[in-house]
Amino acid sequence: MPEPPIAHKVKILFLDVDGTLTDGVIGFTKDGDLRHFWVRDGLALEWARDAGILPVVISGRDSLAVAARMHDLRLEHYLGIKDKVAIAEKVLARTGVKWNECAMVGDDLPDVPLFRRVGWPIAVCDGAAEVMPFVKSITKARAGAGAVREAVEMLLRHNGKWDDVLQRYEAL
Amino acid sequence: MPEPPIAHKVKILFLDVDGTLTDGVIGFTKDGDLRHFWVRDGLALEWARDAGILPVVISGRDSLAVAARMHDLRLEHYLGIKDKVAIAEKVLARTGVKWNECAMVGDDLPDVPLFRRVGWPIAVCDGAAEVMPFVKSITKARAGAGAVREAVEMLLRHNGKWDDVLQRYEAL
Amino acid sequence: MPEPPIAHKVKILFLDVDGTLTDGVIGFTKDGDLRHFWVRDGLALEWARDAGILPVVISGRDSLAVAARMHDLRLEHYLGIKDKVAIAEKVLARTGVKWNECAMVGDDLPDVPLFRRVGWPIAVCDGAAEVMPFVKSITKARAGAGAVREAVEMLLRHNGKWDDVLQRYEAL
Amino acid sequence: MPEPPIAHKVKILFLDVDGTLTDGVIGFTKDGDLRHFWVRDGLALEWARDAGILPVVISGRDSLAVAARMHDLRLEHYLGIKDKVAIAEKVLARTGVKWNECAMVGDDLPDVPLFRRVGWPIAVCDGAAEVMPFVKSITKARAGAGAVREAVEMLLRHNGKWDDVLQRYEAL
Predict the structure, then answer these.
(1) Would you say D133 and D116 are in contact if contact means Cβ atoms under 8 Å apart?
(2) Dist. CA D167–CA D172, nearest whole Å
(3) Dihedral angle over CA of C149, C151, C153, C156, nearest 10
(4) Which of A35, A143, D119, D149 has a CA between 20 and 30 Å from the CA of residue D92?
């Protein structure tokens, strides 16, 4: 196993939406938009929160479909955000967490400014080639098909909390 | 062909929903959620019921979309269930069926407590790696793309009922 | 190129829906069902009709979503049909076409009775293994992803009408 | 890198919809149709416009779902068009752009008349085999999964504008 990219515990996990928490598809009907999320990603974000890692979702696009999923998972979220760094800085100021105690999962160029600032930048394996030079980890699973679950497991193992998850389900 | 994992006939088939009867996608629009089921899985569950295996669906998440499919297939179902074992025990008490006469198809950690109790635990091939040590069979087909059809065929062959299905369609 | 399976021209093309004209997914929201069709399949069925092959859709399941697509393509269709052979016989009686002038594209056991009667039975490549012994052709493309387009092209070439299609689009 | 197929800058990018901007799926519910677009394609079209390439969408099919996405991206669009060449000629007359300053991304036979006229015809890699003889480039990414993003990047590099995109995201 490679050296973990940061020495301290992860306290905040920033997440992009389209192409990260979804498979990148933006569905449309005449009544509005549709997104495809992944059941095991959502469950993992509940585990993260229970284990003391705050998930914070920041998306460049506004969407009623994304908002519906965010409420379903009760996630702190910011949609339609042009300056993702400014939002993240407000979260850090409020929580007292430092950049190097944050991870970020993303897939495309708008995520690079955050990738350059957090301690543990993570790209989904089917993300844009242009972002790969800016991350420390790349998931094996694709976006909307386990990438976020995999990232959360990686962070929980790093924080020493993964066995708590297994124990909850008689799986240790 | 390997030895069947149980000696007696299967009487109940417990089923998870997300990532087992679906492909794991949880779609969202502003009006609510969407699920992707698989036509040949549903048909197989009708065959199971006709052949004396009772399908019982137990899901950790509540969902109006899932409920709509359950009514479409007229399946006994329990949604939004935190303690899957407690529900299953009530079904066993009502029917007089024993744990070792039950099979279960699932994909993730919340299914492990049932996997540990039923006679024939079955994982979908694209399930979480953590559940694989707790199952006796793994499907070749992916969830939401034939895994449940394959599991039902396996059980019907075991119960000696598969040829009845073929005969119904002039396919023997 | 192998010998064509029938000597005379094809006049009717019977089609299954789920897993043949769709990818097998039956989507559900609280408001009803969803199906995934394929743009190039629909266009090919227009070419078939223009070239004198009548497409007739027969499905075992009733569905408002399927009905919407059928109206969109103005296809003769029968949904919720338990006895597909009886419906097909009525179509043959009305049109004076013989079984050996018919082709059929399907994917699963309920299609076998028609496969056994038509002159040119065709399975989609991702159909159920149990149907393969009953067909004369298997598409290379998957259902809901080009299988019907491929079948139509095969029939139009057989009937000597494919070049008309290419000519229409300046592609000869 | 191969010689670029045209010597001058690209000023207009014509785009097909189904099977080019979407994955080819035409979803249906009882309430109408559904399309699957791709987040990174849409973002790339914004970059194209900012960099002086006008995207113009021309589709043979009319669709309220497609119209909703077009408004979301504020794209010039023409739906339900039988004669794509006539529409394109009107756009050229209005803008004063010449055929050899246009690119076109498409997937199927109805796109061939435009492929034969534009300077830089581009097919998506999962397009119909029949169109491939008429194009100068074929994307590596599939339709509805990055093909248009890839085409836009190719055009922006050709026009000398790609580094502007990278710079905007601190990714140079």
Answers:
(1) no
(2) 5
(3) -130
(4) D149
Question: How far, in whole angstroms, is CA A73 from its chain's centroid?
Answer: 13
Neighbours of chain D (3+ CB pairs under 8 A): A, C
* Coil/strand/helix, residue C121: strand
Give every strand in the sheet of B76-78, ordered side by side: B76-78, B54-58, B12-15, B102-106, B120-123, B137-138
A36 to B25: CB separation less than 8 angstroms, yes or no: yes
Closest C-alpha among D58, D60, D67 to residue D32 = D67
Chains in contact with B via at least 3 Cβ–Cβ pairs below 8 Å:
A, C
Burial of A68: CB neighbours in 10 Å, binned 0-12, 13-18, 19+: middle
Phi, psi (deg, nearest 5) at residue B46: -65, -40
Confidence of residue C1 (pLDDT cuts 50, 70, 90): very low
Crossing angle for the helix pair A39-50 and A147-159, nearest 10 degrees? 20
The answer to whether residue A134 neighbours chain D at the CB level (below 8 Å) is yes
Using a CB–CB cutoff of 8 Å, tell me whether C34 touches chain D.
yes
State the amino acid at position B144 in one-letter form: G
Is C34 in contact with B34 (CB distance < 8 Å)?
yes
Q: Do D19 and C40 touch (CB under 8 A)?
A: yes
Contact B25 A64 (CB under 8 A): no
Residue A25 and residue D113: Cα distance in Å, rounded?
29
Taking an 8 Å cut-off on Cβ atoms, the answer to whether B112 and A31 are in contact is: no
Distance between CA atoms of residues B33 and C29, nearest Å? 6
For chain B, domain boundaries: 12-168
pLDDT tens string, chain A, 172 residues long: the values are 456 788 899 999 999 999 999 999 999 999 999 999 999 999 999 999 999 999 999 999 999 999 999 999 999 999 999 999 999 999 999 999 999 999 999 999 999 999 999 999 999 999 999 999 999 999 999 999 999 999 999 999 999 999 999 999 999 9
Residues of A in contact with B62 (CB under 8 A): none
- In this structure, whether the domain defined by D12-168 belongs to CATH 3.40.50.1000 is answered with yes
Q: Which residue of B has its CA nearest to C17?
A: B39
D24 CA: distance to closest CA in chain C (Å):
5
Fold of C12-165: Rossmann fold (3.40.50)
According to DSSP, residue B34 is labeled E
Residue ranges of E strands in B72-150: 76-78, 102-106, 120-123, 137-138
What distance in Å separates the CA atoms of residue A112 and residue A85, rounded to the nearest whole number? 10
Q: What is the pLDDT of residues A14-55, one digit of tens each?
A: 999 999 999 999 999 999 999 999 999 999 999 999 999 999
Contact C67 D30 (CB under 8 A): yes
Q: ipTM of the predicted structure?
A: 0.94
Residue B7: what pLDDT? Answer: 84
Q: What is the dihedral of CA A69, A71, A72, A78, to 10 degrees?
A: 40
> Closest chain A residue to D28 measured between Cα atoms?
A29
Q: Taking CB atoms and an 8 Å limit, are A32 and D68 in contact across chains?
A: yes
Per the CB < 8 Å rule, is D25 touching C29? no
Tell whether B69 lies on the interface with C, counting CB pairs under 8 A. yes
